[in-house]
Amino acid sequence: MVIDIRTRRAGKERDPAIPDGPDPLLRTVYGEILRDERLDQDRTLDDVARAVGMSKQYLSEVERGRKEPSSEMLHSVCDALGLPIEHLLTRAVRRITASRRIATRGSAGTPRVQLLAA
């Protein structure tokens, strides 16, 4: 719930930090994790795509969650990043679990309330 203290009324404004609707697609979560890992290593799309043997356009689509890579392709990208596949899976579970918690409760386990001030 959002309470706007300027008008003292509850509203239904959406907080962009809280997911709206169903859980994110698994391909979206995988893509975010792969992109984060690549950027943490200061590597380019081109560098990783060449190491895997795919186009950088395809890798970009995977990172943005627009393409659903095969398990073999995920394994190849993970290998190129030095990221064990089980770490990708574990991190995906953590992100989905965290997004569910945030969507239903605040960090202290209480209903989430946001105050807006002028």
UniProtKB/TrEMBL annotation:
The keyword Disulfide bond does not apply. InterPro entries: Cro/C1-type_HTH, Lambda_DNA-bd_dom_sf, TransReg_Diox_bact_type. Pfam families: HTH_3. Keywords: DNA-binding. Residues 34-88 form the HTH cro/C1-type domain. GO terms for molecular function: DNA binding; DNA-binding transcription factor activity. Gene3D superfamilies: lambda repressor-like DNA-binding domains. GO terms for cellular component: cytosol. Residues 1-22 are annotated as: Disordered. Residues 1-17 have a biased composition (Basic and acidic residues). Coiled coil: none annotated. It comes from the Bacteria. This is HTH cro/C1-type domain-containing protein.
